[in-house]
Amino acid sequence: MFLLILCLVLTTGVLGFPWFRNDIPNGYKVPDPCTGQTGQIWEGVGHNQEPGGGPRNPFGLDFKTVGFKWTKELCQKDSDKDGRTNGEELGDPGCTWTKGGTPSAAASGHPGICEPMSNSSCVTVNKDIMCPSNTG
Ligand SMILES: [Ca+2]
Fold this sequence. Notes:
By secondary structure, this protein is mainly α. The chain has one domain (1-136). It has four helices and no strands. The model has no long low-confidence stretch (mean pLDDT 89). The protein binds calcium ion (CA). Calcium ion (CA) binds next to loops.
């Protein structure tokens, strides 16, 4: 049993916590904002790299701060400072979504990556973001 737990801990350390995607609206449909990634999904929503794992992006840090839950506070915050709240980006503009429910809108942005990425005011926020290819 101990080994099983240890194994789980080690695995999640590498992969991130994929089940957290059930804890935010449209967690499986967050668009990848990197150049040339149109239509692609950013799997590790709270992380600097698309597959997840490694350091957290601003949204991941805020998500951790509120206890890995979709709270009104988190929903109304603009973690990546691009002028749109996390709720607006994830398709819950009214901050009414609860776990298991259907979001009122589709995800229209990434809550942890300042968009558009080419915007000069986003460069500092996005300095640790690793795009899937070298096109971003
Ligand atoms: Ca935002």
